[in-house]
Amino acid sequence: MRISEFGHAEGSFGLGFGLRLPPMCGIVGYVGSQSALDVVMAGLKRLEYRGYDSAGVAVLADGGLAAAKKAGKLINLEKELVDRPLPTGTTGIGHTRWATHGGPTDANAHPHLDNAGRVAVVHNGIIENFAALRAELEERGHALASETDTEVVAHLLAEEFSSCADPAEAMRLVCRRLEGAFTLVAVHADEPDVVVGARRNSPLVVGVGEGEAFLASDVAAFIAHTRSAIELGQDQVVELRRDSVTVTGFDGRPADVRSYHIDWDASAAEKGGYDYFMLKEIAEQPKAVADTLLGRIDDSGSLTLDEVRISAAELREVDKVVIIACGTAFHAGLIAKYAIEHWTRIPCEVELASEFRYRDPILDPRTLVIAISQSGETMDTLMALRHAREQGSKVLAICNTNGSTIPRESDAVLYTHAGPEVAVASTKAFLTQLVACYLVALYLGQVRGTKWGDEIDAVIRDLSQISGEVERVLETMEPVRALARTLASKNTVLFLGRHVGYPVALEGALKLKELAYMHAEGFAAGELKHGPIALIEEDLPVVVVVPSPRGRSVLHDKIVSNIQEIRARGARTIVIAEEGDETVVPYADHLIRIPATPTLLQPLVATVPLQVFACELATARGNEVDQPRNLAKSVTVE
Ligand code: M6R
Hints:
The chain has 638 residues and is α/β, with parallel strands linked by helices. It folds into three domains: 2-263, Aminohydrolase, N-terminal nucleophile (Ntn) domain (Glutamine Phosphoribosylpyrophosphate, subunit 1, domain 1), CATH 3.60.20.10; 277-471, Rossmann fold (3-Layer(aba) Sandwich), CATH 3.40.50; 478-620, Rossmann fold.
């Protein structure tokens, strides 16, 4: 397919199964009339969440190619560019890395160049046959300078270009020789107005502007310049010029692609005055929750989930629901189980996606599998959903990222409308995943007739109030922040909950681990006496999520006893309880109030103080809030 003068072509493409997804890195390419360095660096800033082990750029200028790269965060590269500025050019590429082959050093940072310094390439993925290619290149006299798998591509591109003098053709020829997962972007000094890219597995999106074009792993990198995007499919090569975008398959045939309009604006991908993306994303939760509900109820008041392309007849046949997810999304799944079983009476299992396919799960066409993922790129979840589909089960994805791999490989998708989540610690994605799960549970109840219309209406009314309740929680967070600061020198914090409060406790502990690097564990409060109570010692902070006394009061009474048990053993109790619940007051060293909500919906308000608590503790301990050590936003390796 050729798109000239930025006319768009619509099309579709499919993904093959059994592919291996690459690790997370951020890639940017630009050709136009602005300073390529400025555009690429600004894009890399927006993609730094994808990896922050090293960063690098290359620009074409004055008939040659100039590159700079530095280990560590982007700030190190920025300093390097101040000390040793690059010449100005209008074509360039950049990369932010999450290391796989070779440590996070300057030499291993991308871009990688050929020996003549005419080709520069950036890469996201793993080239599995790189050792053989490297040996072959060395035999032909090439000198390779890094430990990476990527560098071979620069040398191979240089060789191919020397015979065909066409960057896109050189890229196609090289891609046909590569095994594994690779998304590549490259420039050649002999073609100063061309950027070429290749996509296998991880995302690569084209941005189409006026007299300029962009390539990036995520639209956030170019949203400040254009909202017009083209999503590349599997095994496609793209050639960008200022006024044209040409897409072919690795075989050179014109390819079908999908063009689309990006419906969120640049400010959504910026900090908007907050110190951290995480703080902004916590604050955005009322809106995100409301947006996820938007348009789901039709004029007659009944629930419509248009994106669910599994028929009502098929849903009536479902005899088991299995939820697969990782990390925070897994916790959303654990909460969903309570709603699904209570509202539909269908048995529901929740499984860590990374464990799922290795235990030979019992699946058949009557099993509905729900895959929950913010990014839509998590490898463990993707492999689990492929396994489920191979067994004949239908898969419904609950996802936040439009067009990502998990929804594209699912039978149906329900998008959460949280907007871009940049901070590595998931916050607004979690709340919107919960809303989406409640909607799916209600929908199942509706089509199977296990819930009456007025009962569904009542829950929907409660859900519509939640946005305002989350807002109220956020307005009362100062004491939580103050408390967190006093605990900065502690080594351990425990979290207890019962019923849906148990997954909330797990989520509170996960947030604290990943942000504050503290030992934190979540327990079902009833399990405490079976072992974990031995951990309680003088002044140990224990956060307890208390169920509503208005709901299943037996749960409430039991957890009040649990609080007394740990307090008697010296714990410092931090109690999260509903407004008006006076029974907990005598046993709470610190009391965090949340609005009264129906039992099943309580996680939507109870989680928020725990997010704020973890964020403040991380700040007090001097940690990087948005980019915690060793992590990446989406984990695309198993
Ligand atoms: O993109 P996903 O929702 O599939 O990601 C799953 C987990 O990796 C993710 O929730 C992770 O646990 C977060 N960093 C937690 O804050």
